[in-house]
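Project standup — Tuesday

K.O.: blocked on the structure for the chain from last sprint. Re-posting the sequence here as requested.
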Amino acid sequence: MAESRALEPKLLAALSRILDGLPDAGPTLPGLLAFCARQLEPLVPDAHSSFACAQDDPRALVIRTVPDDPVVPLLEGVILVPNSSPILSRLEAHEPTLVDLQEEAICDAMGTLATSGFCTLLLVPLLADGQLLGTWNLASRRHDAFGSAEIDLLRHLGDVISLAASRAHLQARVQQQTEQLVESEKLAAVGRLVAGVAHELGGPLQAVISLAEVLARNPERDDRLESANRILRSALRCRGMVHDLLTYARKQPHRLEPVQVSDAVMDALELDRFSDVGEIQVHLEKPDNLPAVMADAQRLTQVFLNLITNARHATPQDGRPGLVRVQLEQVPSSASKLELPRGTAVIQVSVEDQGPGVPEELHEAIFEPFVTTKPQGSGTGLGLSVSKSIVLDMGGALYLDTAFSRGARFVVELPATNRPVSSVEARQVSAAGGLRILLIDDDREILETYEVILSLDDHEVTSCDRARKALEILESDTFHAIVCDIRLPDLRGPEFLEELHVRSPELADRVIFATGDVVNDATRAFLASVPNPSLIKPFQVEDLQRAIAQVADASPERD
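H.V.: unblocked you, prediction finished:
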């Protein structure tokens, strides 16, 4: 009994460690039980600790957590106490129960412990709101391992574990219901958005169709260039809406890499030149040699394009020249809204307009989905919400400068990085020309469009509409670049790449995936798992040229 009394201070110390460590034990019940087991097992070296959960109706106790002990072959999922045993009623009455395994091995689990040389088994009840959740089980090879003082202390310790288990169960249910609520709210938002998006897309698509018909009927018109530019402007508007929706749904694959913010701003200004918002000038102020930030270049461009477009729309057109001011600068972390270590540099980009500003009552809500200051029918109200989500994913901040009084001033802040920007130049493929390119897509219209585009750069193009046919071509021929759709009728993109790795590993690195199937979880996971470049339809000519240049540069066959 002296050894039994010596156990009491050790148990008190273990109780203190468990109470201190419960917040870090994790929100799941298995994680919690495993944490408690690690703290308790060293107390009685010759004891075997496990946990059982009450399940089914009528209730039975089933082993759920066991230590990794090759000597004791006790397995998870076996019954510890059957529903017919009177032991259950004592446990439900909050009474720890000591079982003599040599006389009362009433099930397979107890029989396994008895066969392994254990004499006694202490079942400590775990209750929540009067209901039996399960038991904490301590098996010992000594008959006098647990005295009344230790049993009483272990019962209180079991109560602590029960409370934590209840918290874990409640937290899991709250998280599950929150996720369901978010998804249902997102679906409801998409439903509310359908009519507005149909209206928004209808205009530019009508322009594309009508202008294309005009060119087809009279290909010798003098205004062909202007018509082509108007078609491009309308198509880019449609693409922007699609990208906004995909980003809002978080279905667009992205990767963070060192990016020059000034490059993303310049790309946004290049796209903004297709805007039809009157005579509004954009003035850019940027210092040289700003450090890079960790970002997704395409998404960051999307943020700046949205802010610049909003600023142009907000600037009044009253006959006087309007001005939008974009300013880049490096500031210390103490001058930003980001919580960063002292001395960290922050790249700050502000976009200012000369409009009426954001009403005070909307200062807090302006970044919520479907909140907009534009006239009804002039926007979906997703732009700022999507932009803030993008910037937050990059570890930055997007906010409205409420102290600015001469219009509206939106500010993007991103922490600087010392990592260098990739030195690979995104040069046009046309500079080299004469590349051999294989196109794989089951849409004949897309293939014909690719062929026309690439022929302008004097490339030799082979196309096919089936992946297996492409594999046959590749058995006897080679190419500098392979542009492949993912959703093909006979063999999907991942399977095609796998086959190519087996047959011609050197060609697998030259595959560029082009797809519009970014809502599919499997597609997004695949694109994120491979190093191959990917193009998200719809994309522009320079995107295709840039990807081809990337894989062709790595081709040993290139002259």
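K.O.: great, moving the ticket to review. The longest strand covers residues 322-332. The two ends are 87 Å apart (CA to CA).
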